[in-house]
Amino acid sequence: MRILILGGTAEARDLARRLAARADLSVIVSLAGRTAAPVAQPVPVRVGGFGGAAGLEHYLRSERIDALIDATHPYAAVISANAAQATASAGVPFLALQRPPWNEVAGDHWIEVADTNEAVQALGETPRRIFLALGRKDLAPFRRAPQHAYLIRSVDPVEPPLAVPHARYVTARGPFTAEQDGALLACHGIDVIVAKNSGGPASYGKIAAARTLGLSVIMLRRPKLPDVATVQAVEDVVAWLDHAPA
Ligand code: NAP
Description:
Elements: E1 2-6, H1 10-20, E2 26-31, E3 45-47, H2 52-62, E4 67-70, H3 77-90, E5 94-97, E6 109-113, H4 116-123, E7 129-133, E8 149-154, E9 167-171, H5 178-187, E10 192-196, H6 205-213, E11 216-220, E12 230-231, H7 234-242
Helix pairs in contact: 1-7, 2-3, 5-6
The structure holds NADP nicotinamide-adenine-dinucleotide phosphate (NAP).
């Protein structure tokens, strides 16, 4: 079987690792190409967009893909919708691997918002010190709130920088522990965090640290994803493949 994994997450890498050694499977991971030096994958990789749902359908047909696994990030909604559409058109079995979201627990102060525009509104007019734990492509709306001081963490440098007078940058790749993130937040005098509900342990450090420090988290709600067969664990994908999807 030829398996295409839509990757860009730790789970996609784990899955590829689990499948790499199997002689009955030929596995390819697809990355969007957002990061300059992506983490090495244990299987062959292709990089870059397919050209929408039609482009992905063409790829599935021309590469004779037998099953597609969408293991992209829960906020990567465009590629997930394209994958659902392309597999339906091409008649290719399809499964989504989606990590469960974090839940607010006692001691958390979350303000849930629909998107980054709402997040900007929720920050208010009074200048605050904000940790933006978002992807580089999600930063632009914060230009409209130049009164705040921003700490921005990303895997690759933010180029061009955000057009606000007070912004500092940290380039780092997770996972991040609660201790590391607590020290970062305290060192920069942060009083509010803007985050995505990514789920999983690798980026939970800031959420746990916010609880300890009594900071608010403006949490972007997850986007609506296509209504497709979905599992939450790598083992569930392996079990699905073992039942020879057709
Ligand atoms: P997106 O908005 O859903 O997708 C935008 C376009 O990027 C897609 O239409 C597709 O281009 C291309 N694309 C996305 N993922 C791809 C993949 N795995 N392989 C090939 N092309 C892909 O996606 P995004 O939010 O920019 O995320 C891009 C990648 O970064 C994903 O692989 C995702 O798992 C990873 N990531 C995203 C986030 C996040 O917060 N969004 C966080 C961590 C990691 P075409 O239409 O040309 O095919």
